[in-house]
Amino acid sequence: MSCARFLISGKVQGVFFRASAREEAVRLGLSGYARNLADGRVEVVADGPAEAVQELERWLWQGPPAAHVDEVARSEYSGAVAKGFAVG
């Protein structure tokens, strides 16, 4: 099992990034959340099998069609993660 926090920068707000990330995370069987940050980035926390978290990370570099991702910064996450995947 793996739990990671991703900070995604670029054109990632207003392009359905959070909803698309949720769809991908649910498809991969991950728990966590995606939310916009005040500085224009999107934060994604994902918890589940390491391979699935890695696959989500690869997807985050692409995002939905209207997004333009400049950077995906990954760090380990040790906070509590509720079951399911929320969009905030």
UniProtKB/TrEMBL annotation:
Keywords: Hydrolase. PROSITE patterns: ACYLPHOSPHATASE_1, ACYLPHOSPHATASE_2, ACYLPHOSPHATASE_3. The keyword Hydrolase applies. Residues 3-88 form the Acylphosphatase-like domain. This is Acylphosphatase. Belongs to the acylphosphatase family. The keyword Hydrolase applies. Its EC number is 3.6.1.7. Coiled coil: none annotated. The active site is at R18, N36. It is an enzyme of class 3 (hydrolase). It catalyses: an acyl phosphate + H2O = a carboxylate + phosphate + H(+). The lineage of its organism: Bacteria, Pseudomonadati, Pseudomonadota, Gammaproteobacteria, Lysobacterales. InterPro entries: Acylphosphatase (IPR020456), Acylphosphatase-like_dom (IPR001792), Acylphosphatase-like_dom_sf (IPR036046), Acylphosphatase_CS (IPR017968).
